[in-house]
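Re: that backbone. Tokens:
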């Protein structure tokens, strides 16, 4: 009896390295320091990337890009408490778009455009059996973690 390689899911370490690599590529394209970002592949895979940019309509609030496996990427402002993040726009094209698409989203938003949606899209359900884990773990080669 042979085992089909597609039955094997990426390990926790593969997913962690993949998310770090993915975040690093996005950070490089948007001019952010990936080392300031955070990643978590716990119950819901997620990442947060603080940005050196500010939105012109909220210059007093720190800006970040947030990602999670259920909603994809969003631009987020620091809450008044300085801890909570408040999403202002969701990219909404794919749970794991290419880093270039994420960079375009941010560039358009910073230029005053309205590239996304204020409502969180349902890109996928947590733990859904699709190709997201394999796509994410493929970014592991880009990680310096």
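Recovered sequence:
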């Amino acid at each position: 009896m042979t085992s089909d390689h597609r039955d094997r899911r990426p390990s926790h370490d593969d997913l962690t390295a993949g998310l770090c690599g993915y975040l690093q590529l996005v950070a490089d394209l948007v001019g952010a320091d990936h080392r300031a970002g955070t990643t978590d592949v716990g119950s819901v895979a997620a990442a947060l990337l603080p940005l050196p940019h500010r939105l012109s309509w909220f210059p007093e609030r720190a800006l970040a890009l947030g990602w999670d496996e259920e909603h994809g990427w969003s631009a987020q402002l620091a809450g008044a408490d300085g801890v909570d993040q408040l999403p202002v726009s969701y990219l909404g094209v794919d749970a794991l778009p290419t880093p270039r698409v994420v960079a375009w989203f941010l560039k358009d938003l910073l230029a005053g455009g309205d590239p996304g949606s204020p409502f969180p899209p349902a890109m996928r359900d947590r733990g859904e059996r699709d190709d997201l884990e394999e796509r994410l773990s493929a970014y592991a080669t880009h990680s310096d973690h």
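Confidence is low (pLDDT under 50) at residues 1-5. The CA atoms of residues 18 and 139 lie 4 Å apart.
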